[in-house]
């Protein structure tokens, strides 16, 4: 096994061994629902369960994609969609201790952006590419000439009339919660991507997250000047990117 990736999300925690040469799963992934109280202890237990299930040898690099800004060696300072008790926890230390091995942690959208840059829709791209993941929240990854600029958090830019976060209005969870048509949601995504386009002038957008597999339904309603591509690794990008991140030299 080259490396193992874990993607911690608001509804599921998924893990799979990853083939780093091809940038894909080396075996079918396992998904365990995120514990209702998604506390550090509860989430760490699920990570251990995933590693045990695949009998991951302690010598195998393990990468974890996590939905918050990550600064290795520093505690989590901000948490939008999991239990707030993560704030103040050094997640790398916590998971490494719980899983009895060194674990590397990366922001989930950054993991997806890395995977798309190394193996997917942004491979070989020049200039700035913004990967946007649409799920419970909105995650963003800035990839410049193939290199990641970490922790961008552009899902939280103000978009609503009263300054509401973009993710409250345009994440896939907003589409489901408000039962929006693909057209209505596509229009909200247009508004969001237009803001990113205005502020950052990227060369391209890559749209990922679980809903990227249904991109034909809403891509026709996205009207921006920048080229928009669906993620190639679809929802696997978090796991593949985390594994690839963990296997880099320390
Ligand atoms: C978090 C980001 C994360 C994104 C997608 C946001 O609410 O602040 O860190 O990448 O959700 O999970």
TrEMBL record:
This is ROK family protein. InterPro entries: ATPase_NBD (IPR043129), ROK (IPR000600). Belongs to the ROK (NagC/XylR) family. It holds the Pfam family ROK. SUPFAM superfamilies: Actin-like ATPase domain.
